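Help! Submission page says 'invalid entity' but I think these are all valid:
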Amino acid sequence: MTTSASGAQGHRGIAVALAILGWAAKFIAVVLVIATFAFVLVKAAPGDPAQVMAGQTGAADERMLAQIRQEYGLDKPVIVQLGTHLKRVLTLDLGFSYRQRQPVSTLILERLPATLLLTGTAFLLALFSGILLGTLAGLRAGKWSDTLLTVISLILYAMPVFWLGLMMVLLFSVQLGWLPAFGYQTIGVTMGPFARMLDVASHLVLPAVSLAAIYLAIYTRLMRASVIEVAHQDFIKTARAKGLTQSRIITGHILRNAILPVVTIAGMQASALVGGAVVVETVFAWPGLGRLTYEAVMQRDYPVLLGIFLVMSVLVIVLNLVTDAIYRLIDPRVTTRATN
Amino acid sequence: MAEATLLSVENLSIALPRGADRAHAVEEVSLTVGANEIVCLVGESGSGKSMTAHAILRLLPERVSIASGAVHFKGRDIAAFDEAAMRDLRGGEISMIFQEPMSALNPLARIGDQIAEAIVTHAKPAPARETVDARVIELVTAVGLPEPATIVRSFPFQLSGGQRQRVMIAMAMANNPALLLADEPTTALDVTTQKQILGLIRDLQRERGMGVLLITHDFGVVADMADRVVVMRNGQVVEQGTAEAVLRSPQHDYTRALIAAVPGARPVGARSRDIHDAPILVAENLEKTFVTRQGFFRPPRRVPAVRQVALSLNARETVAVVGESGSGKSTLGRMIMRLIEPDGGVVDFNGTDLLALRGEPLRQTRRRLQIVFQDPYAALDPRQKVGDAIARGPMAYGTSRQEAMAEAKRLLARVGLKDNAADRYPHEFSGGQRQRICIARALALKPQVLVADEAVSALDVSVQATILELLAELREEMNLAMLFITHDLRVAAEIADRIVVMRRGEIVEQGATAEVFANPAHAYTRELLDAVPGRRLFAGPGSLLQATA
């Protein structure tokens, strides 16, 4: 018995190692495809990138152009350029922004934490409140509290993000003065680490809520529908016939089953959230990747755009993996069906 | 049977919400169940039998409630119990099992945990983990599940339907109930599994001296199980008495009709049909192995579904393919229609090689082979009007819309539906009516071969009988050859000229219907015959009613 069990464990270990290896291979392949795609996009854009860069530096003479071409390898055949580009991507070298006079990776790393903080907070806020409100509405389907929640979520859903953001600034910052209107932290003040944290948190509230609103509405509606559906399934009747209390039926049987579609959708939207941050970061002057993207587009800063493109793609892939893992954790049918 | 009365339902009426098709689901129903007694509550769908059982534990759907009457359990009026007292009763002294083993278990929780939950809920103070685990293993063993230690760690989707129903029973037995309510516990199972589950219920009942209220629509089951019988129709009790009395000399017409509807109660071979030895479809060496990929580096899993099967079907002939779930009978039916591509073999249809056809010739041939599926609820597009569902087929082959609709209406009338049926949606029809629609849809294309894949298995026996009758008429009118796939030998006996018995992807026996029933050659065929419910009453398919006792 013990030997067979440990044997099975060994097999399992190998299987997990192989699965990770397979995933890593897929990951690299996808990154390379995306990098190629991004490269082709930039190549297909009208105009000579060398001239754009030269124009940005303000010195557009022939010698400068030739120098830029040589430095970027723009004088070589396209296929060689692609090879160089992919090699750089694999060595995590994202190039240099002439406009900002900094390496692209430095620029991105500077902005990434702010974006992750904002989108992460917004996402978790939307997910948890959505699940909570959706469950409440679903369990009270047809009653007034359900109708109220449905109406609120519809309003949130219909409201443009920038408008909601501006209105909240008007109310909470301008009228009431409770929360700061923009920025990441109070500038020019020295604070202890705890005070600093509180300061950032107070700056975070308005942008996070604005960004979360629409997703909160989606998850509420989704969870409501899912709870109603699950509550009518046969195994809920089985649970009642066992003599379980209503609260035990909800926590033990309804919630876990009802949450599955929400996890699926949330996993897909987690990546869209990063893109959605552009508007919010602009409205609230939040120094994140979204704003960096906006600036890079306005300034035609191609190396930065390419870098952001790549980092976002990697983020999306990682998020997908996390979603998969969570899904497997909740639903035994996913993993076991494959290993059975 | 003069044991103490355990449960007595007195003048129970159950009110339906306003706007339902009638005011009461159940009216003035009275029945009793004694300790150590099996009472069968019999009726068709919609008779209120299930509602009555649910009302006992107050597990009624929302907005449906007990309007009047009393439910006495061990002398106490439990209809007046509050919710907390009711919870103590549920899964404690009164347990319930349901019809659909596939959906009655939480798909995300381990079997062991679900059984343990039933124990822990009723044990005060909470017992030690080891005690609970040991009790779970004991219960799982008691209901005859293999490898209890593995089963408790499994998830529901890893178990077969029969195994899941055993789990449900283990759960129901967790607190040694005095009364078991079993709501059609075997209707969704095939006959061999049904026999095992019914046997298990009977054994447990005897061992523990339980009272059992068994709900069924099948008088075959009644004959095997019941001490007493209560017959319900349209929410009212029409007859009750001891099993012997009700089965041997039913008083009410409705009871007589239900008993007569049990397939196999009629003699086999009474009909002699005019069939020439002219094969319309010949299949040889059919093979199918299902391969499931299991991710990157693991070898794919192979399940051989059909192995080297040969089958021939004469014009106008009806061949029944009989076997348990997993025997490959449905795969065979679908390969013959090329709904599943065989891995190997030949199918000769009217002299052409069906498997070699591609494109337009294949499409032209397809209309000659039509199918009726098992689940009439899933087989019709809920957003398509019935008339369209039938007319779309011929229209796809170039018939004008008007002509096709006229034909659809004619067919609907032929299968016994009103002429306004064409403009209605599937959800407005009952299961039996939907199956009639499915038959009309298949016949609209004027097929030569009709495959009926468990076409009556999801229906009540009484409805089953009328559908079988309809099919028997239609095959004469339209000169149909039929491949009738079923798990139920009684049904096969009703309609088939020839029987093919399949097991694990292979044909183990075939022959003329009367021959197979009279002299089953293979042990497995005998096993299937044995599993037919109601042999106490009817000596099995093919023999006359032994109504002499």
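Support: the input was valid. A stray whitespace character was the problem, and the output above is from the cleaned input. Confidence is low (pLDDT under 50) at residues 1-7, 336-340 of chain A.
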